[in-house]
UniProtKB/TrEMBL annotation, chain B:
This is Autophagy-related protein 3. Pfam families: Autophagy_act_C. Its main location: cytoplasm. It comes from Rubus argutus. GO terms for biological process: autophagosome assembly; autophagy of mitochondrion; glycophagy; nucleophagy; protein transport.
């Protein structure tokens, strides 16, 4: 197993997508009743949560609520309510094309760059410190074949590329890094953070351990306040959807880009926050140290760095497809009801 | 869906429309829940097991008798590492009883854990005809995900493969291991939801399955993860009351009676069960139906007050 000691390139486990059937049902209804042939991009919301089981990663999930409400449905409940610990919002954009040809003709690299540019600008103008959810964005391209009730789609999770790549100094389960006292204090602080509706869905944060070995979780923007206090130990934390013991998950990439760009740190201590049964699990959570060699002139860069992030389908660069004829096709529904 | 099942659903729908929801508690007497007791028990589940949340579901399907933001409970991405169908075969081959729950098994659910005891149970089921599932069908059938069939309907994506010049930066991308490990292949995940069934006045469990690449599983394949005693009898594939599509569900017709039995056993031991713990007891019972799906129903606390 690599990455436990010595220097190696920091490798990240890609984000994985998961689409609830309800998303496609609502998209179909919007397409038929509201959008028609208008194929302008629409803003959608994805949801994720920290990994909550040692054997499966969490996913970026799309639900019916990811889409705007169909105009025919009136509701007093807001489309996306904040503060749900199992649903941290991730802003996304959907390009749904009218034909399979235009789906394949989309300029994927260009679309990815456009989303990466938004992330880069939010880092530069400080918005990413105020609302850290914008550090993770996603892009979905799709073609909804409403004659056959099949959906072709492809996700991208834009990540700004550090060049040269960050190297890993060490990476260990958090429980092996902290003393029992710190670990207890840290677990309690995490469980408070995760159970308050004000912070439960804030995916990036700062872990502060003071000289009395007392741990607190602070907002990312508080780094500027704490960095001067020499007797504090600081770690950059994020909700890690990944379960792997030797790799951090995808959201760390843009966090490192922010740290590198705004604060120009050479060495970054980070914490991949993971849970078991909904509570902080420091055996599963990882603490690591990465070294960043700041790319030339990053702080003052006007153009957006290179970005990667198209999701692979079983290791291949191909879109996914799902057929929902069984639950959507009226003739089949009539047959199964007979 | 078979005709008798359709008729029963139609009947049930009509009864639900013309009768009001239960308001008087009959938890200890009948093992059922009133609407407000369901909400109380759900609130307790969400607070003790935070992987569960309340959701409001499709606005058009909202039930007026439940709070709009508390229509049903759901826990997502629950791992299922082995097929229940295989596990039982293994146990049976070893000449053992199927012992469903191995942690703090104190026997009070034994009648549901052992397949041999089912004959007496079975007679009591209303005649819901079982789904026609071919027993000999290979469990490892290849088109596991939705869309696996109807291949001719789907344009051949291989034509487009790798045509795009998309970058993946192999240096920092962790490319997943080839799925040569059998465990990875078999790892499915489930979204489990609990709705309130107004007709039976009990909670009802629904399963939505995903394969290892998080593609929707055909509802029929979900039955591989159901205890084989239940797969063709109590677990059926029906419309979800709050979500689109067909989902596997544990039919609630016997839930009240089973819960009543569990409550009686607890009371005979001097434990007075509290209604807000109902869903923990209920989920423990459901574990005998879906033994390999590792959802959370932590029971590290008292089930009720001990009366003496």
């Amino acid at each position: 197993m690599e990455g436990n000691s010595g220097k190696s390139i920091l490798q990240f486990a890609p984000f994985q997508s998961s689409v609830d059937e309800g998303f496609w049902h609502r998209l179909s209804s919007l397409k038929l009743n509201k959008f028609g042939i208008d194929d302008s991009p629409i803003l959608i919301t994805g949801f994720y949560a920290p990994c909550s089981h040692s054997q499966v990663s969490n996913h970026l999930t799309l639900l019916a609520e990811s889409l705007p409400l169909d105009s025919s449905e009136e509701s007093s409940v807001p489309a996306v309510s904040r503060g749900n610990r199992n649903r941290c919002s991730v802003p996304g954009i959907l390009y749904n094309t009218n034909t399979v040809e235009s789906f394949h003709a989309l300029d994927k690299q260009g679309l990815l760059k456009a989303e990466a540019k938004k992330i880069w600008e939010d880092i530069q103008n400080g918005k990413a410190l105020e609302d850290t959810a914008v550090l993770s964005r996603f892009l979905l391209i799709s073609f909804a074949d409403l004659k056959k009730w099949s959906f072709h789609y492809w996700f991208a999770f834009p990540a700004l590329v550090l060049d040269p790549p960050a190297t890993l100094v060490n990476l260990k389960p958090a429980s092996q890094v902290f003393s029992v006292e710190v670990a207890e204090s840290l677990s309690a602080a995490f469980n408070d953070w995760r159970s308050s509706s004000l912070t439960a869905d804030v995916p990036f944060f700062l872990v502060v351990i003071d000289s009395n070995l007392h741990a607190t979780i602070k907002h990312l923007k508080d780094w500027e306040t704490y960095q001067s206090a020499a007797d504090h130990k600081l770690l950059f934390g994020f909700y890690d959807p990944c379960h792997l013991p030797n790799n951090p998950g995808w959201p760390l990439r843009n966090l490192l880009a922010l740290i590198c760009s705004r604060w120009d740190l050479k060495s970054v201590r980070f914490l991949c926050y993971r849970e078991t049964r909904g509570f902080a699990d420091l055996g599963l959570s990882l603490v690591g140290e990465a070294q960043i060699t700041a790319p030339q002139g990053w702080g003052t860069l006007h153009s957006t760095p290179n970005a990667v992030g198209w999701e692979l389908n079983k290791g291949r660069k191909v879109p996914r497809c799902i057929s929902l004829a069984k639950s959507m096709d009226p003739t089949r529904l009539a047959v199964s009801a007979a | 869906m078979v005709l008798s099942q359709r008729l029963h659903e139609a009947f049930k729908g009509t009864v639900e429309k013309i009768t009001g929801p239960r308001t008087v508690s009959a938890f200890k007497e009948k093992g059922v829940l009133s609407v407000s007791e369901f909400v109380t028990a759900g609130d307790n589940l969400v607070s003790k097991c935070p992987t569960w949340s309340w959701e409001s579901g499709e606005p058009s399907k909202r039930k007026p008798y439940l709070p709009s933001e508390k229509q049903y409970l759901i826990t997502r991405n629950v791992p299922c590492l082995r097929r229940a169908a295989f596990v039982e075969e293994e146990y049976e081959a070893a000449g053992m009883e199927v012992l469903i729950d191995n942690e703090d098994n104190d026997g009070w659910l034994a009648t549901h854990g052992k397949p041999k005891d089912r004959s007496s149970e079975e007679e009591n089921f209303p005649s819901i005809e079982s789904l026609e599932i071919n027993k000999n069908k290979s469990v490892k059938s290849s088109p596991s995900q939705v869309g696996g069939e109807d291949e001719d309907d789907i344009p051949d994506m291989a034509d487009y493969e790798e045509a795009d010049n998309i970058e993946i930066d192999p240096g920092t991308y962790l490319v997943a291991h080839e799925p040569d490990d059998d465990n990875i292949l078999r790892t499915r995940t489930y979204d489990i939801s609990i709705t309130y069934d107004k007709y039976y006045q009990t909670p009802r469990v629904w399963l939505t399955g995903y394969d290892e690449s998080r593609m929707l599983l055909q509802a029929e394949l979900v039955l591989e993860d159901v205890s084989q005693d239940h797969a063709r009898k109590t677990v059926t594939i029906e419309d979800h009351p709050h979500l689109p599509g067909k989902h596997a569900s544990v039919h609630p017709c016997r839930h009240g009676a089973v819960m009543k039995k569990i409550i009686d056993v607890l009371m005979s031991r001097g434990v007075e069960p509290e209604v807000d713990k109902y869903l923990f007891l209920f989920l423990k019972f459901v574990a005998s139906v879906i033994p390999t799906i590792e959802y959370d129903y932590t029971m590290d606390f008292d089930l009720g007050s001990t009366s003496n």
